[in-house]
Amino acid sequence: MNNQPPAHQSSERGIALVVVLLMMAVLSGLATGLAMNGNVEVQMATNEVHHAGARAAAEAGLNRAIVEVVAINDNVTDLLAGADGAFDENDDAAAVNEDNGQLDGYLGAPGPHALGSSGDYTFDVEILDDDDPDLYPELTSSEMTALAAAASEDDNAYTDTNNKLILRATGYGPKDTIVHLSRVIEITVSTQESQEEHTALSNPAILVDGDLTISGNISLLGDQGNVHANGDMTLNGNAADVEGDATASGTFTHNQNWEAGGEMGGGRPTINVPNVSAAEYEGLADYKISANSGGQIQIFARTGSAWSTTALCTSKCSAYGWTGSGSTFSVAGSAVTAGTYYVEGNVSISGNPGKKGGAIALSLISTGSIKISGTPKFTPENESKIQFVTDQDLVISGNVDLDDPTSVEGQILVREQMVISGNPEFQGRIIVKNQTSTSGSAASSNTISGNPTITYNGTLGEIETVWYEDTSTQTKTYNVTGWMER
Question: Of 55, 160, 340, 465, which one's alpha carbon is 20 to 30 angstroms from that of 474?
């Protein structure tokens, strides 16, 4: 009997071990692969968490910054230039550029700003121009130039020319995770037109609401020895003595070697010239002179607030120093009754009233012109210190003395034009409204010649000039109009 196994049985001996080893190797590989894949997936999940956290931080920064930016409503804020409002486009590293585009002042502190108490996630925000190369690191210089041109920009990151900015927030997370989110901010510029009121006070000795020509040797003296013309002023002669200012709102022409004691020149602001109307000053008068139905002079006295119905004199009023008929009333002698006269017509005074016996307190308010010549000596009679008021022209010549030795300064108000010549003296202020000349009136332009002396120390009060300047105020508002992830 043969007990030997078959040949094929001995050849298969050990195969099970090999199979088991192979299976163990495969299973080991699978286990290793599964383990490695799990680690990758864990890392990917961790990265996703970090990215989501950084993005959330960026979004939080955007939302917070948007609230602050859209609340800006003025015409001075330059978000690109930062808090100092300055930049140096020639030197990126300049100190003034450190705050460019920073919103620290709006967010309360410099960034980065923590999101949550752990500090794992933070954000920072900044303002960039929409053609800032930092937004497009992948573009070449020529490509950036083309992009700026298409956006109506100037290819300059420091200046905005199309009223469009980019608000960019950067979120930071663990393991250097960085996420950029941006919003497009468009600027709306609105213009509001308004008028700004200005007030100026002035107190010149001579004020003309038009052109003025001064020749000869005028002496303009005193603390307010100033002359101003709201039109053009021509000052001839080197012997003129103006202790204060000589100015004009139009042109100012003078001899080459002449200088005023104060300021001089043209192009100055106009000064308000009050309206001149004899009727407004009638209440100051003690007497009224007019012509009766026959054209003869008559004088009325005031009774309370009205005029007496009975004339003090008719036709012959020489007792009061007055003569005349028609529309012109005259003082030609050496005496005239003191007082303030309201004259319905023209006034002509010559001779020397007040010259010998002392100055006469005489004031004239005329609905026509006033002509003064000879050597009279007058002082203002009323408490308002009105010397003369004329609805037409004032002509002074000769050696008229209106210089009060007691330093009472009077006021002369002229509705149309003024002509002064000879050697008159006056202490006070002259105001000429320069209204259109009445046909046939005594003067047609404003001139001062001869050797007049005018002294004014400013006791009559300042003239208030109010003018309005057209202004426009631009207001910028910021609106979110789009988004980008850069």
Answer: 465
Coil, strand or helix at 97: helix
Q: Average pLDDT of 256-270?
A: 91
pLDDT of residue 394: 96
Whole-Å CA distances, 380 to 203, 285, 332, 362: 19, 12, 19, 6
Q: Which residues contact 129 (CB under 8 A, 6 or more apart)?
A: 80, 153, 156, 157, 158, 159, 160, 165, 166
Cα–Cα distance measured from residue 56 to residue 268, given in angstroms and rounded to the nearest whole number? 63
CA gap 130, 134 in Å, rounded: 10
What's the rounded Cα separation, in Å, for the pair 336 and 212? 33
Rounding to the nearest 10 degrees, give the CA dihedral for residues 106, 107, 109, 115: -170
CA dist 347 and 71 (Å) reads: 71
* Phi and psi angles of residue 248, each rounded to the nearest 5 degrees, phi first: -145, 150
pTM, two decimals, is 0.64
Q: Reduced to 3 states, what is the DSSP secondary structure of residue 29? A: helix
346 forms beta bridges with 328
197 beta partners: 468
Residue 437's closest CA among 417, 452, 454?
417
**Token reading at 110:** 């410099």
For residue 405, what pLDDT is reported?
Answer: 61
Chain Cα centroid distance, residue 392? 37
Residue with tokens 């004088």: 299
- Determine the average pLDDT of the residues in 133-143: 90
Q: Which amino acid is at 428?
A: G
Separation between Cα atoms, residue 229 and residue 433, nearest integer Å:
11
pLDDT tens figures, 169-186: 999 999 999 999 999 988
Q: Report how far residue 380's alpha carbon sits from residue 386's, in angstroms, rounded to the nearest whole number.
A: 6
- Residue 486 carries which DSSP code? -
Q: Are 331 and 352 within 8 A, CB to CB?
A: no
